Amino acid sequence: MSDQAEKTRTILRKVRQVEIRSRRFVDNAMVGAYHSVFKGAGIDFAEVREYQPGDDVRSIDWNVTAKMNRPFLKVYEEERELSIMLVIDVSGSNDFGSGATSKRELAAELASLLAVSATRNNDKVGLLLFSDRVEKFIAPKKGRSHVLRVIREILFHEPAGRGTEIPGALRYMMRLLRRRAICFLISDFITPGAPSRAGAGAAQRDEFQQVLTLLNQRHDLIGIELHDPRENTLPNVGIIVLEDAETGQTVEVDTARREIRANYERENRARRARLADTFRRSGIDFIRVTTDQPYINAVRAFFRRRERRR
């Protein structure tokens, strides 16, 4: 068997494993949750029927009533079909994973769970992959084969870029989506080359929040942060060389120094707190998942919160 054939078999096997696991979660833990939380975008006219005592008189169809010489009502039903857009960061930092699962694999698992839930409700699923540029756009469609393609692209697409440019990806999607959609933005939200000046950093955050708010006004946006526990702290292992996965820049760090480890932890906590605050001020739901914990717990908690609000 050729190397290419073996590679293809490996890809297909991995894609099916992810899909089977997602189907099991949907059947065992997500039954009804997706449908109850995500409603249709509007209502469609269904039929005209004869008026019955207790019906809302505001729904009377006066034209038909005049023709038939007795009252008839217009009946509407919820427009059930939705479009789910999976907007996924495939920049260099998402290849990291300190355990058995990388952040990119975690993104694929999450996306598969959402995609399978959508297809069970006869909804469409679309995909946008981005790094420091838009890598790939797949228009929303239905069907299992389409979902398998989405999973494959998330897992095995080889990005041209290594950095992260979220606002540009969101603006690109807004130009393409004509109808209201439910958009899941899945990223570790780690951007390379953070500005050294506080003012520049604040301006960058303001732009990010403005784009989030605008997208959420047109669509239903949910942010999902991918996180690996090793990103919380630096191990005390002496002098090490750290490389930025997105810029390739390296820096030598003496992890034996307590103040350096403390600064690293403090900056990381502050960055994640700013991120959560940005979503909160934009009125957007925000989920946090980690590579070392079952993601289904965070997703179920999110669905429960949304259902209570409805």
Distance between the termini: 55 Å
Q: How many domain units?
A: 2
Tally of separate helices? 9
**Rg:** 23 Å
Which percent bin holds the helix content? 40-55%
CATH architecture of the largest domain: 3-Layer(aba) Sandwich
Percentage of residues in strands: 15-25%
- Give me the side-by-side strand order of the main sheet: 5-4-3-6-7-10
Order of helices and strands: HHEHEEHEEHHEHEEEHEH
Q: Report the structural category.
A: alpha/beta
Give average pLDDT, whole number. Answer: 86
Number of strands: 10
CATH topology of the largest domain: Rossmann fold
For the report, how would you describe the main beta sheet? Answer: 6 strands, mixed
CATH class placement of the largest domain: Alpha Beta
Question: Can you tell me the overall shape?
Answer: elongated
Folded structure, characterized:
- With 310 residues, this protein is α/β, with parallel strands linked by helices.
- The chain folds into 2 domains: 18-35 and 81-309, von Willebrand factor, type A domain (Rossmann fold); 43-79, no CATH class.
- Helix content is 45%, strand content 22%.
- It has helices spanning 3-29, 33-37, 62-68, 103-120, 144-156, 166-176, 198-218, 258-281, 295-309; strands at 42-50, 72-79, 83-89, 124-130, 134-141, 182-187, 220-227, 239-243, 250-254, 285-290.
- The chain has a 6-stranded mixed beta sheet with strand order 5-4-3-6-7-10, with helices on both faces.
- A hairpin with a 3-residue loop joins strand 4 (124-130) and strand 5.
